[in-house]
């Protein structure tokens, strides 16, 4: 837990609302158990189970977001060896050009590497043309995690900045994140993942206020800041910086699941390292344009969360603090929301 970090509390208004909710729940749930429909007992019990599940997940998220950290970037120390890694497999040349140019132009001395799992000649030409390093391999074992681990054998660096092929970093990305590594126990610094295509499938525009909202705003504006207080913020696979020695201590980027970012975060936390969530938007990417890629992405996240839970354990591992276990449980159990919503939907028909 990192209680020495300044944080934003809920405030009196929100606290009152939560207390009212808790009082109502303490009254309602026992009463509800006594009025089950005996004519349809099985369905009534299942419906009540969905209500209990809802209360349980709310309590987890209240614990997780009770205090939101307030971070201010410390000065970047001089002399760090920094490698910027951009993995790719089949993204278009134009997209990679913009990302790599943004990476090259970042402040603070660094090397930029294009990691090409597509083994495409046009990518080699692009790297040569814009002046970045190019690295490929003979197979695609372990997908993105395998590509990053392969790079570890060829690159000498103290810290690694990682960007997906579509995430274009701002010039100040490194200068606003490297300062946290003055603390030798910090394993990684994660920043928000924002997007420049505001007409994507996941963006919603309010016609009255002209504001734009997306579902990931809750995660990156609230949940990650809450996790940060409990030293449980996630590495999200992009827009992040990771300490090389921390990675080496866990054998590199985690493999064996489809969400190497969550998996790697958990292993680093189990090793006793500290994570940092810096809430400033310092890179912008491309959000899914249609429902197909959107659903494919969310299914992969859910599948990966279940794989990590099965492989690493969350609730009963001795290597995480109790608050860390609660935070990881809250973010994995959320993928069970579907059955609950299905039950509520069927009960209203």
From TrEMBL:
Subcellular location: Membrane
SUPFAM superfamilies in alphabetical order: Nucleotide-diphospho-sugar transferases
Membrane topology: Multi-pass membrane protein
Major subcellular site: membrane
GO cellular component: plasma membrane
Top-level taxon in the UniProt lineage: Bacteria
Gene Ontology molecular-function annotations: hexosyltransferase activity
Pfam families, per the entry: Glyco_tranf_2_3 (PF13641)
Keywords: Glycosyltransferase, Membrane, Transferase, Transmembrane, Transmembrane helix
TM region positions: 12-29, 41-63
Protein name, entry field: Uncharacterized protein
Lineage: Bacteria, Pseudomonadati, Pseudomonadota, Acidithiobacillia, Acidithiobacillales
């Amino acid at each position: 837990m990192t209680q020495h970090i300044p944080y934003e509390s809920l405030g009196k208004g929100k606290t009152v609302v939560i207390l009212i909710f808790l009082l109502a729940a303490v009254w309602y749930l026992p009463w509800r158990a006594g009025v089950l429909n005996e004519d349809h007992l099985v369905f009534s019990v299942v419906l009540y189970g969905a209500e209990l599940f809802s209360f349980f997940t709310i309590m987890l998220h209240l614990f997780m977001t009770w205090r939101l950290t307030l971070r201010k970037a410390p000065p970047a120390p001089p002399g760090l060896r920094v490698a910027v890694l951009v993995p790719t497999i089949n993204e278009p040349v134009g997209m990679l050009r913009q990302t790599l140019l943004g990476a090259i132009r970042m402040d603070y001395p660094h090397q930029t590497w294009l990691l090409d799992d597509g083994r495409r000649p046009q990518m080699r030409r692009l790297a040569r043309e814009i002046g970045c390093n190019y690295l490929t391999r003979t197979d695609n074992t372990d997908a993105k995690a395998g590509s990053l681990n392969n790079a570890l054998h060829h690159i000498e660096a103290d810290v690694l900045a990682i960007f997906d092929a579509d995430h274009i970093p701002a010039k100040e990305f490194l200068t606003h994140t490297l300062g946290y590594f003055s603390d030798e126990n910090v394993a990684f610094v994660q920043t928000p993942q924002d997007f420049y295509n505001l007409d994507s499938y996941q963006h919603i525009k309010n016609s009255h206020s002209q504001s734009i909202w997306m579902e990931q705003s809750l995660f990156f504006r609230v949940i990650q800041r809450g996790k940060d207080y409990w030293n449980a913020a996630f590495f999200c696979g992009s827009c992040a910086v990771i300490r090389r020695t921390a990675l080496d201590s866990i054998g590199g980027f985690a493999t064996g699941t489809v969400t190497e970012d969550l998996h790697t975060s958990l292993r680093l936390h189990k090793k006793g390292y500290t994570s940092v969530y810096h809430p400033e938007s310092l890179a912008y990417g491309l959000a899914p344009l249609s429902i197909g890629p959107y659903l494919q992405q969310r299914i992969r996240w859910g599948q990966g969360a279940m794989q990590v839970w099965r492989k690493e354990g969350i609730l009963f591992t001795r290597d995480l603090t109790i608050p860390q276990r609660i935070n990881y449980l809250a973010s994995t159990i959320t993928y069970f929301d579907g059955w609950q919503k299905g039950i509520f939907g069927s009960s209203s028909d």
